[in-house]
Write a structure and sequence with these properties.
Order of helices and strands: HHHHHHHHHHHHHHHHHHHHEHHEHE
Number of strands: 3
Helix content: 55-70%
Strand order of the largest sheet: 1-2-3
Structural class: mainly alpha
Radius of gyration: 25 Å
Largest sheet: 3 strands, parallel
Number of helices: 23
């Protein structure tokens, strides 16, 4: 604990300690066969681990978290009008995703969640990430139930653990991984639709039909049409079941109608209210398959290389035996093939797509976790054959899980990458430095900021509430602002050459503070 205190503050340590206690209690109940208590404390463990993640970076992360935070903040005042520049007072072209006025670069549901969190709990980096904590807890339970239904209770329990200790998921929650809240929210809603599909398959309870449709529609409202993934699996299952008539697939169509009713209204309204911006966003999204956008390219094997990053160094070597043992342990082989088809299609589709992003394939991660859980469950079953006493079997299980957590949940990695106390962590120190500068500015409400380094004008707007730009205004822009009753403030570092109409102007505020680091 002393070495931890060198890197984490007291709040972080307390939350991590509570997570450890909850996990120990969960393991105790699991070893005693008390599944309900075991999963309840496992979900609590997830809540505290994800809270620990949300407290990791006390600043807005690059590249996208800052944009999502700003748009979410602006949505508090007008929920149906997503804006990046809420006050586009400077006459210029707001023609790129990183400087739009109306910001339709992403679907809005995850941004609405951020706005609601800000509204209910105040504006901070933690409340920005709070929806991820809630969704993460739901994901743990969904992973548990899905694994339990398909393979068995212990496999489901291990699936939940694998979700909690996965550092890629941890980094999505903390806002550090690319596309963070957007990709994580999308991943969770797709996973919830798959869980609902599995529940419906085994129970035939009609409530799950509507939940499948609801979660699929919500997934579309986070990312786009890959949110329909559950219907691919459902279609494959019906083919395997040789159910071809409309009456045999009425439930599927009802669910699809629910999805459309949830996802379609925003698409229609956005094209009605913001036709130019919605059209541009649609065209941009359509190019992902045929063109490597913004330098996000890669070979056909890109996502297979990312598999090791997402799931661990040896994951690519273990996935085939994991899928095999998942098949052997599966209680329904046709459902297994349905789930496998989704994994294969997702990896094939995104491997063929020209644009490559790290989290594109994470939508099937819950299925992958179930496969790895099946592998570990099978190995434990094999080892237990040589142990006759129940206490020894329980001890073996506990030791195996503890070893898994130690190997996968690398505290040293988190200390090195996230801790502000780590002097080598220039990324965090520089962004925290910039945040402190922005929050220290005491400027009038009618001020406009200029010459903000790189894309840090986004954080500047988030922390100050003022319009901010990364260039020096022209004479025409400056005079236009004067006629609008606005004041001009400029970051005037040592390398900045200001024109005379600004440099020698007593009404212009020069900010002699240097922003650092990344753009």
């Amino acid at each position: 604990m002393e070495s931890f205190s060198l890197y984490f503050d007291n709040t972080q340590l307390l939350i991590l300690l509570i997570a450890g206690v909850c996990f120990a209690i969960s393991l105790f109940f699991q070893s005693k066969g008390k599944a309900s208590f075991a999963v309840a404390f496992l979900v609590l463990t997830g809540i505290f681990v994800f809270s620990f993640a949300a407290l990791m970076d006390p600043f807005l992360n690059l590249w996208d978290e800052r944009f999502h935070a700003l748009v979410g903040k602006n949505l508090m005042n007008h929920p149906l009008m997503p804006t990046l520049y809420d006050d586009p007072v400077v006459s210029m072209a707001y023609d790129r995703w990183d400087r739009y006025y109306i910001w339709l670069h992403k679907q809005p549901l995850f941004l609405w969640q951020i706005a609601l969190s800000f509204k209910l709990f105040g504006i901070s980096e933690f409340t920005l990430r709070l929806p991820n904590i809630v969704l993460g807890a739901a994901l743990v339970y969904a992973g548990y139930r899905s694994g339990m239904l398909l393979v068995g209770q212990r496999a489901g329990y291990i699936s939940g653990i694998l979700i909690i200790i996965n550092l890629y998921i941890f980094e999505l929650i903390t806002g550090r991984q690319e596309l963070e809240h957007n990709d994580f929210t999308f991943f969770v809603y797709v996973s919830l639709s798959l869980w609902s599909f599995i529940e419906y398959h085994f129970s035939q309870n009609k409530i799950w039909i509507y939940l499948i449709g609801m979660f699929s529609g919500m997934a579309i409202l986070c990312k786009w049409l890959v949110g329909l993934l559950v219907y691919l699996g459902w279609f494959v299952l019906r083919i395997l079941q040789e159910k071809y008539t409309f009456s045999a697939n009425k439930d599927l169509f009802i669910s699809l109608v629910v999805t459309v009713l949830i996802a379609l209204p925003w698409q229609v309204l956005s094209f009605m209210w913001y036709p130019a911006e919605a059209g541009a966003a649609f065209q941009f999204n359509a190019l992902h398959f045929t063109k490597a956008l913004e330098g996000h390219g890669g070979s056909f094997w890109y996502h297979f290389d990312m598999f090791k990053t997402i799931y661990g160094s040896f994951a690519l070597l273990l996935i085939i035996p994991a899928l095999y043992f998942m098949y052997k342990s599966s209680r329904d082989k046709k459902l297994y093939y349905s789930l496998l088809s989704m994994v294969l299609v997702v990896y094939l589709f995104f491997s063929l797509a020209a644009t490559k992003m790290p989290s594109f394939t994470i939508v099937v991660a819950m299925i992958v976790f179930m496969a790895f859980a099946s592998l570990l469950d099978t190995l434990l079953n094999f080892a237990c054959r040589f142990l006759k006493k129940g206490n020894l079997r329980a001890l073996l299980f506990v030791l195996a899980i503890v070893a898994l957590v130690v190997v996968q949940f690398e505290i040293g990695y988190l200390q090195e990458k996230h801790s502000i106390k780590n002097e080598a962590n220039s990324y965090s120190r520089q962004l925290l430095h910039n945040k402190e500068i922005f929050k220290s500015l005491d400027l009038a409400e009618n001020t406009v900021l200029f010459n903000v380094k790189g894309r840090h004008y986004i954080e500047a707007m988030f922390y100050t509430g003022l319009p901010a730009y990364n260039f020096i205004p022209t004479l025409e822009q400056y005079e236009d602002l004067k006629t609008k009753g606005r004041l001009t403030a400029i970051f005037a570092g040592q390398d900045t050459e200001l024109p005379g109409y600004l440099k020698d102007n007593p009404s212009v505020l020069l900010i002699n503070k240097d922003l650092q680091g990344y753009e």
